[in-house]
Write a structure and sequence with these properties.
single chain; about 260 residues; Rossmann fold; 6-stranded mixed sheet; 4-stranded antiparallel sheet; about 35% helix; globular; binds adenosine-5'-triphosphate; ABC transporter ATP-binding protein; ABC_transporter-like_ATP-bd; ATP binding
């Protein structure tokens, strides 16, 4: 009998309320190992809140999360070793240089210093940060911080990589670098889960996806399943979550002179 395949992420009945309102309201999610998985949803749908519970930094009010076969809650340490995370606006030690940030992350993960140094150099090179490795992170642009965040997240070679809006502040060249790096990581057996508003990126990269709205998974499946009969994924998304008309009379003063 073959070994059972463990899903990369399984969330069941996740709940989180802030000030009496559910941000995540009974979310189920299954991310197959080795997949590229997209989480789409309008502003305020609960994507970031769900991701923060999955990575073990925000305690759910209810439900379970298992990452790479390891329960995330209540003891988050073992699961955290298996995952890497890049936040929307990655928080880092501002007064460290990029290189020092990677050295610090390597220490936290208990990596062998020689191996960590080799990995850091490769990551800085691939992410086009070698020339800036000596500058303080406080002086990095948002796009540089995103790339630095990815370097930190990949340093310990996690089984699952989770990214919140990874393409939001990247220029086209760095978007391509990021996509290629993620593809390479996936080709070597890694699993990528990311949230995005950018439907053409989701369409191009993802095997499977979920559309969240009001804290719940509205539709889940392959990108083709979610697109359904709509001409584009963008249109399917708008149809699913409900588009908004601007109204004929609104903003009539704009450029009216
Ligand atoms: N710490 C918090 N305190 C109070 N309310 C919060 C907190 N974090 C999130 N929320 C609320 O929870 C809901 C979901 O927010 P969340 O950031 O998870 O959405 P999102 O799908 O990531 O949105 P976006 O696409 O705009 O980043 C929103 O109504 C938000 O105001």
């Amino acid at each position: 009998m073959g070994e059972a395949v463990v899903d990369a992420v399984v969330a069941r009945g996740l709940y989180k309320a802030f000030e009496g309102r559910f941000a995540v309201d009974g979310m189920d999610l299954t991310v197959p190992r080795g997949s590229f998985y997209g989480i789409a949803g309008p502003n305020g749908a609960g994507k970031t809140t769900a991701l923060r519970m999955i990575i073990g930094v925000l305690k759910p009010d209810g439900g379970d999360v298992v990452v790479d076969g390891v329960p995330v809650w209540p003891d988050t340490r073992a699961a955290k070793r298996r995952l890497g995370f890049v936040a929307d606006n990655p928080a880092m030690f501002e007064r460290l240089s990029g290189r020092e940030m990677l050295e610090y992350a390597a220490l936290l993960h208990g990596l062998d210093p020689v191996e960590a140094d080799r990995r850091a150099s490769e990551l800085l090179q691939v992410l086009d940060l070698t020339a800036d490795q000596g500058r303080m992170i406080a002086d990095y642009s948002l796009g540089m911080r995103k790339r630095m965040g990815l370097a930190v997240a990949l340093l310990h070679s996690p089984a699952v990589l989770i990214l919140d809006e990874p393409f939001g502040s990247l220029d086209p060249v760095n978007t391509q670098v990021m996509e290629e790096l993620l593809q390479r990581y996936r080709a070597r057996g890694g699993t990528v889960v990311f949230s995005s508003h950018v439907m053409d990126v989701v369409e191009r990269l993802c095997d499977r996806m979920v559309v969240m709205a009001d804290g719940r998974a509205r539709v889940e499946g392959t990108v083709a399943d979610v697109r359904g009969a709509a001409p584009t994924l963008q249109q399917a998304f708008v149809d699913l979550v409900g588009g908004r008309d601007l109204g004929e009379g609104e903003l009539s003063w704009l450029q009216s002179s």
